[in-house]
Write a structure and sequence with these properties.
The complex is a heterodimer of chains A (251) and B (204). Chain A is α/β, with parallel strands linked by helices. Chain A has helices at 32-42, 58-72, 86-94, 104-108, 111-120, 153-163, 184-193, 207-215, 226-229, 235-244, and strands at residues 5-13, 16-21, 24-30, 47-51, 77-80, 99-102, 125-134, 137-142, 147-152, 167-172, 198-201, 221-224. In chain A, strand 4, helix 2 and strand 5 form a beta-alpha-beta unit. The chains are: A alpha/beta (251), B alpha/beta (204).
């Protein structure tokens, strides 16, 4: 049976892992290659690396880092953060990234999804969508949550699937960093409406939250950062609890 | 020496990194004369069958693959191309293993089938040696080969499908052993053992 996936997310700045809440008070959390290896050994099913380096120098550090990660890691990983062109995607896939996550760039240029999926296959194109509640629906935000695009999240998720994205990484901005649980209404509404797998993000605080994201939110995978970084929840304990709750997982 | 076939649909870094971790010698090539000198061939692949076949044909690799008697391991799209004509772009695939590819029905489950799924052994085969029944492997695909007499391991999503197949000198896996943790590493080691004999775990 297909297992629900647990995906730790690592923030990368200038080639190092950083930890922090809402991009504030960032502290160095060590070598991404080592941390990735640790998560993999502990039972992570996949990893996401989000490059938050703000400078123009970022590609100079990211590509060699991805190469190093790919040499060591025996599970799939996704790289995201400011990726805006087919050439950038090609460079990351060529050094061993399994997938790339695209966010603001595909809102500005939806054709990028189509071009990238045609060239590299849908399986490696993850559409990252940051959604914030707006009455009875959710709007899509870009530029790290700074800008409201006015797009309806459900409509946008349908469009990215139509255009060839292989997966959606959906972050609730209302819940992100709060540890108050995932926005299961948002998750289930979108998961039930789009034909591609959905990764839940934003709000993980407890094991129960992660179970709910699957059972109530209908997510195919659960992504979290701080609960794993600060070892508030051990991946093995989480997966055992999910298994005990009747959710198929890879133990 | 293992030859990894280099064509546009390959996820070459993942496969070559996995062979590095196993300390196996390899070359990455798109030239049939290099393949002639190899002990065995790994045929990776992701993406569309149509563009993959076009690329293989440009370099004469389709003909080489159909005629070879060397051990060939197809991975993901590589394995699918061993089977018969797909509906994806109405491509003629290699057709070296009997059986026709099908697409998962998106009304019965999300497509692509993506993630770790359990694999059950159907037939004893050295490729699956030491792999426990129900082991999870990482899959990403929208098309599948149905379960046939050449299936050595199967899995199920919205339909049962061939997870691993063997016929003559061709073996193939639908999942990605190079991305499937220690179980995937075991499978690649098994392939090397099939090629080189014995239970050696390293080869220069």
């Amino acid at each position: 049976m297909l297992a629900k996936r647990i995906i730790p997310c690592l923030d990368i700045k200038n080639g190092r892992t950083v930890k922090g809440v809402n991009f504030e008070g960032l502290v160095d959390a060590g070598d991404p290659v080592e941390l990735a290896g640790r998560y993999s050994e502990e039972g992570a099913d996949e990893l996401v690396f989000l490059d938050i380096t703000a400078t123009n120098e970022k590609r100079k550090t990211l590509v060699p880092l991805v190469r190093d990660i790919a040499r060591q890691l025996r599970i799939p990983f996704t790289v995201g953060g400011g990726i805006g062109s087919v050439d950038e995607i090609a460079a990351l896939l060529q050094v061993g990234a399994d997938k790339v996550s695209l966010n603001s760039s595909i809102v500005r240029d939806p054709e990028l999804i189509t071009r990238a999926a045609d060239r590299f296959g849908s399986q490696c194109i993850v559409a990252a969508v940051d959604a914030k509640r707006n009455g009875d629906s959710w709007n899509v935000y870009i530029n790290a949550g700074q800008k409201d695009t006015g797009l309806d999240a459900l409509e946008w998720c349908r469009e990215v699937a139509d255009r060839g994205a292989g997966e959606i990484l959906l972050t609730s901005m209302d819940r992100d960093g709060t540890k108050s649980g995932f926005d299961n209404e948002l998750l289930s509404r979108i998961s039930d409406a789009v034909p591609i797998p959905l990764i839940a993000s934003g709000g993980a605080g407890t094991i129960e939250h992660c179970i709910d994201a699957v059972t109530v939110g209908h997510s195919d995978a659960v992504l979290a950062a701080s609960i794993f970084h600060f070892r508030e929840i051990e991946i093995a304990d989480l997966k055992q609890a999910m298994h005990d709750a009747g959710i198929p997982v890879r133990l | 020496m293992i030859a990894i076939i280099d064509y546009k649909a390959g996820n070459l870094a993942s496969v070559s990194n996995a062979l590095d971790r196993l300390m196996a010698g390899y070359i990455i090539t798109n030239r049939p004369d290099n393949l002639d000198n190899a002990d065995a061939v790994i045929f990776p692949g992701v993406g569309h069958a149509g563009s993959a076949m076009k690329d293989l044909k440009q370099n004469g690799l389709d003909v080489w693959l159909k005629q070879t008697t060397k051990p060939v391991l197809g991975i993901c799209l590589g394995m699918q191309l061993f089977f018969e004509t797909t509906t994806e772009g109405k491509t003629d695939t290699l057709g070296v293993i009997p059986g026709r590819l099908e697409k998962f029905d998106s009304s019965k489950g999300k497509v692509p089938h993506m993630g770790w799924n359990t694999v059950s052994i159907r037939k004893k085969h050295p490729l699956m040696a030491g792999i426990a029944p129900g082991t999870h492997f990482y899959h990403v695909h929208s098309y599948f080969a149905p379960v046939t007499g050449h299936t050595i391991a199967e899995s199920a999503y919205s339909a049962p499908f061939t997870a691993a197949a063997a016929y003559k000198n061709y073996v193939g896996v639908q999942f990605h052993p190079e991305k499937s943790g220690s179980a995937g590493e075991q499978l690649l080691r098994n392939f090397l053992n099939m090629v080189y004999g014995g239970t050696r775990t390293t080869m220069a």
